[in-house]
Design brief:
The radius of gyration is 19 Å and the shape is globular. It has one domain: Beta-galactosidase, Chain A, domain 5. It is mainly beta. The two termini are about 25 Å apart. A hairpin with a 2-residue loop joins β10 and β11.
């Protein structure tokens, strides 16, 4: 386990999966990140797939490859490149296990950097192969709601920035696992940008929103002075999720660069909707900041 901290915050990151497991407010002694066996994860990294692939598989050059839900990164041990005390850099390169799922040479580098207002995540994907590669990348942080035990889940709200947006979401079907059905529908949000949280809204599972001009998303409540804000400039989609049917006291706010499959459609990887493609030697960086109060 790696620890980074400053005067305001302390973060714990597991090298196994490069997963942020705790993010403490030091002055008030509470954790922003979910920790409970009801959902035994915290902030998984999603690579090179997001969600479930149809038949848990995909095709590449006509050959079928298995792909676990959200990819394979959660089961990989990352190398510690550097820990300066308030900044941690972890990396993963392809290996015998990853190549069974994903026949590409790559390097994934993740930087966690604390500042006096929160934490920044920076993901860098590098194609070190001699052929093009295609991938999705996402971050899956689960936040305790209520924050610091103040209020209840239903007392909280999500606000997208800037206000007045006309946002859309992908219709989800269960088979019994949640997949997209290929339809895009209007997001049910007041003034286009405001959602009052309740557990019933997650009965169908995840809510994936197309980032049509979203610059940030704010989780807040009148019951607390604390809030959580995510910047989203580098991510085309954002997903909201909590464990359905459980009245779970957490909410995942997930920046996505990629999408789950459409039900019934096993895809050719190089044609996969919303994926990023890199030519040999190319790199792509995705960054977002969590600002905390």
């Amino acid at each position: 386990m790696q620890i980074i901290e400053n005067d305001q915050f302390k973060a714990e990151i597991d090298e196994h999966g490069a997963q942020l497991t705790h993010l403490f407010n030091k002055s008030e002694g509470f954790d922003y990140i979910w920790n409970d066996d009801l959902w035994p994860k915290h902030a998984p990294v999603l690579f090179p797939a997001i969600g479930r692939s149809e038949k848990d598989a995909y095709f590449y050059n006509g050959q079928e490859y298995k792909m676990p839900q959200h990819g394979f990164v959660a089961d990989q041990d990352f190398k510690v490149e550097k820990n300066t005390g308030n900044c941690l850099i972890l990396s993963l390169t392809d290996n015998e296990i990853t190549r069974k799922y994903y026949p590409f040479a790559f390097k994934l580098t993740i930087m966690f950097s604390l500042n006096l207002t929160g934490i920044t995540f920076k993901f860098n994907v590098e194609n070190i192969d001699n052929k093009d590669l295609s991938f999705s990348l996402g971050s899956h942080p689960a936040f305790n709601v209520p924050i610091n035990g103040e209020g209840t889940f239903d007392d909280y709200q999500i606000d997208f920035e800037p206000s007045g947006l006309t946002l859309k979401q992908f219709e989800i079907v269960k088979t019994p696992n949640p997949y997209r059905d290929g339809k895009i529908i209007k997001l049910n949000a007041a003034n286009g940008s405001h959602i009052n949280l309740n557990h019933e809204m997650f009965e169908n599972g995840l809510i994936i929103i197309e980032n049509d001009g979203i610059q940030g998303v704010l989780l807040s409540s009148s019951k607390t002075k604390h809030s959580i804000h995510l910047s989203l400039d580098d991510f085309r989609y954002v997903c909201l999720w909590t464990k359905e049917g459980a009245n779970a006291p957490f909410l995942c706010i997930e920046p996505f660069a990629g999408l789950p499959d459409i039900a019934g459609h096993e895809v050719e990887l190089m044609d996969k909707e919303a994926n990023t493609q890199l030519q040999p030697g190319q790199k792509k960086t995705f960054e977002y900041m969590i600002t905390l109060r």
